[in-house]
Specification:
Order of helices and strands: HHHEHEEHEEHHEEEHEHHHH
Helix content: 40-55%
Oligomer: single chain
Strand content: 5-15%
Mean pLDDT: 91
Largest sheet: 5 strands, antiparallel
Radius of gyration: 32 Å
Number of strands: 9
Shape: elongated
Number of helices: 12
Structural class: alpha+beta
Distance between the termini: 30 Å
Length: about 400
């Protein structure tokens, strides 16, 4: 009774050839996973700003028209402005009376930029009088970790991660390239929402907004405003910066864009890997023609030879995946230390969906390799016909 054809003998006797194939698979696995890890740094990093901070602070610039004040009803610009300001102040008081609203201001805001690996986001933070800074910090659960609280005009507290991301530190001018030497960073703060706060300085700002210190029940500004007789609309010129608009920004402009980029990279990588593996395997099996013919000559069937080839393939693919996973962990640790942490970013280390996607790509490649394998097995001859 003949023994089952071994799937390890050829690998043991041809370590260099097999190791090259395994290494190619491992490096491909690592490239696909690490690219997804790097791209995730943008998606994960902006989550607090786009999905958490708007649950605590909602901003809106509501036009006088949306407040029921129309220019045609007033004889001059001054009376129109006065009526609009009064309507806005009354609207703010009505909002503040809501049980799910802590405080409402009509104040200047400042834009902070936060850059991921690919793209980034900007968000407005409130500029309030120094005595109201602790109120804002308490609302967002922010703690002072370095420096002091603002005590004068044009002083800001910036989240630690945003400071690292922008290459700034306490004592620097905040985003000097954008605002010049206007806003001084006097302290670093830490919160889950990456909140920032400061004091105004003249009219240097990124806009005036109705700023609502809200909670999860009142963070939808359009819905909240409707309770008090106002229906804001971006089509009418109203600017709304709340949980709804930020969630839409995250899902469409950040998450979907990054996902599409990763998908394209995966597809291109898979195509090149498939072509490379087909070429490599054709050459691999062509060099073993005599071996396969010898097996047929001593009584092994083509199906048994096919089984041996597939077991060898599975062993090498498994080794490549395991080695690739080890390479990925090492590469991620390096990137974390030299790129992710220093830039104030956060990346997702364990990505189940990405692992399944890579494994699916490898399974697809094994499926593609069935073509040259089956063709080669079909062409196997007995030893006496090799020369033919």
């Amino acid at each position: 009774m003949k023994n089952r054809l071994s799937a390890t003998k050829y690998i043991k006797n041809n370590k260099r050839t097999c190791f090259v194939l395994i290494l190619a698979l491992a490096l491909t696995f690592m490239a696909m996973y690490v690219i997804a890890y790097i791209m995730s740094a943008t998606v994960e990093s902006v989550k607090p700003i786009t999905l958490e901070l708007p649950k605590h602070i909602a901003l809106a610039n509501v036009t006088y028209g949306s407040l029921g004040v129309n220019r045609a009803d007033y004889p001059d610009q001054e009376s129109y402005e006065n009526a609009g300001s009064q309507a806005r102040d009354e609207f703010c008081k009505r909002l503040e009376s809501d049980p799910d609203v802590e405080k409402v201001y009509f104040i200047q805001t400042l834009m902070a930029g936060y850059v991921g690996v690919v793209g980034g986001v900007g968000f407005n933070f409130p500029l309030v009088p120094p005595e109201q800074v602790p109120e804002v910090l308490a609302h967002v659960g922010a703690k002072l970790t370095e420096g002091r609280l603002p005590a004068d005009d044009g002083e800001v507290l910036i989240d630690e991660r945003i400071l690292r991301n922008g290459g700034m530190k306490v004592g620097d001018w905040f985003q000097k390239d954008s605002y010049g030497e206007v806003f001084k960073i006097v302290g670093a703060i830490r919160s889950d929402e990456m909140a920032c706060v400061g004091t105004p300085r003249g009219y240097y700002n990124s806009g005036w907004f109705i700023t609502v210190l809200c909670n999860e029940n009142s963070c939808d500004f359009t819905k909240l405003a409707a309770k008090y007789g106002v229906t804001p609309s971006e089509a009418d010129g109203d600017v709304i910066d709340d949980i709804v608009t930020n969630r839409d920004l995250y899902e469409h402009d950040v998450a979907d864009s990054v996902e599409a980029t990763v998908a394209v990279i995966m597809l291109v990588t898979m195509i090149f890997l498939s072509i490379s593996m087909i070429v490599a395997y054709v050459s691999f099996m062509r060099n073993r023609v005599n071996e396969y013919c010898l097996y047929v000559s001593i009584g092994y069937s083509r199906s048994e030879i096919y089984g041996m080839i597939m077991r060898e393939m599975m062993l090498m693919f498994t080794a490549g995946i395991l080695l690739g996973a080890a390479f990925s962990v090492g590469c991620i640790k390096v990137l974390e230390g030299i790129v992710i942490e220093p830039k104030g970013l956060v990346a997702k280390v364990f990505m189940k969906d990405q692992l399944l996607r890579i494994l699916g790509a490898f399974v697809m490649i094994i499926g593609v390799l069935q073509i040259p394998v089956i063709v080669s097995v079909y062409k196997i001859k007995t030893i006496d016909l090799i020369e033919d």
